């Protein structure tokens, strides 16, 4: 402290500025993390440490240089966490909704005293044995440490070998993985970890966007005379700018515009005339680890990627791949480049190629995009989930090639490329004009907001046959596959009403609200016959409440003749334990509290009253003797015997079992 005393004032100003910058980043991080506070506890702690470091600087003024370095590192780490936070926040939100739906369904399943009904098919479908709950596999059970230093790759591999149809648990911790791992057999994932290097490929259940209502116009972009349309689009996190590529139709002129991420005003312009390396500028992606922009040409040299210095915007080199590369994106969480390539002669199928940081191909697979469109525009990958655009749709799929959602969009608004900033998706959109000075717009995609002016609103407004002002349709209302018919709640949020799913099934309603069907009776028609669907309206007529069944009926499997269940006993230690009502076949001698003197083979009949308050035991021995006793007032009474066999004699017995009086 004494050594730096003379520089204290200047350093103090630097620290104040740094503290303000850190607080600004912290506010941004907190906004992105608001829906996933539990999952990202470590990120919050990291942000708290940032404030603590800044406060310590003001009070102690110790180790100033070290403090600045630490604060810079924390700022960088917060930036890194922001990208993962929104995707995981979305997963947490959807998981909560699924849990709410599951709870509502569970309430409908009848239990004793409950309000629902249970059929055998429901029981088979909705109840599971306790033994099946032992299906959670934790990576720490296989040696994972999660300290951010130890290489946990081998432990994750061992866990992956034991995951078929089970749940993978990744507890809180920082996991260092040095290889790309694919968890494609796991049933579900509870991931609470942070990955210091490479995150594995997990099944991604939650689509990035819900529907076209999440996408809306943001800003029109004017461009210079040398170009007439937009193409590639990405976000440079180091300079905090969007980068938009505009070209002329021949691909001989290219301009890369840097845009302010909040106002979309131009803050940088870089002009090129390079058809060999830039050409059509189909798509772009920024890699923050290399600080490079990677660009696909599309016009010439279809196997090449052009590498641009993200600071100077100067072309540095080209990279040649074995495969065609029409578009490109980089996922900083899984450290993966993705490229989506159309297949000649097939308008629906695409080849998806995944590459590591050195552009070594990790995997390749084909995906049926379902939508018949050969156009192959922007590619995007985040947290393992993949999104790409055709001329009339956005397609989302997992890193294993499973299509999760297809969002239809207005074909007049062509999405060229996709970028990601501060928890939202941004699209460069081209609308063709007759004068070939095509309209260039930026659209925003917010997974948590339904826009009234969505990308499809204008399209619907121009469809005269819908008669939006009222009237009668003159023909069938036809919706494309997996396209929702939506309505609005009183608060203005959209709710799905009906669609035909990608599997060809009709889906009605929205899992966020109740669905009511009005009518005198609820009928089902299978094409030949009509059936009435049973509901709670039919209680007491066609169906019973579960509680009424429990109170008034006995299961057939639990009763035998005369309403007594049968059991067989080969050995026992105490006859006082026979208290359950029923008929018991006895096949043994001895045991405590048994009838006196008799060979104990025969039938014991037990009657239980008042839930054990009074019990009657009657034993019929094979030799024709009958014994009887009762339990009442918390005490077993003594056995009494009546001999009933033919050619027998009547005896009276004393308490010790000896003859007192008998008649031959």
What do you see in this structure?
By secondary structure, the protein is of the alpha+beta class. Strands 30, 31, 32, 33, 34, 35 and 36 form a 7-stranded mixed β-sheet that branches. Strands 1, 2, 3 and 4 form a 4-stranded parallel β-sheet that branches. The protein has a 4-stranded antiparallel β-sheet with strand order 5-24-23-22, with no helix packed on it. Helix 1 packs parallel to helix 3 (64-108) and helix 2 packs antiparallel against helix 3. The radius of gyration is 37 Å and the shape is elongated. Mean pLDDT is 77; it is low at 32-40, 56-62, 82-87, 101-115, 128-133 and 459-469.
Brief rundown of the structure:
It is built from seven helices and 38 strands. It has 664 residues and is α+β, with helices and mostly antiparallel strands.
- The value of Rg in angstroms is 37 Å
Relative helix content? 10-25%
Low-confidence stretches: 32-40, 56-62, 82-87, 101-115, 128-133, 459-469
Terminal-residue CA separation: 119 Å
Global outline:
elongated
Number of helical segments with 4 or more residues:
7
What share of the residues does DSSP label as strand, in percent? 25-35%
Q: Major beta sheet, specifics?
A: 7 strands, mixed
Calculate the mean pLDDT score and round it: 77
Q: Structural class of the secondary elements?
A: alpha+beta
Q: How many beta-strand elements?
A: 38
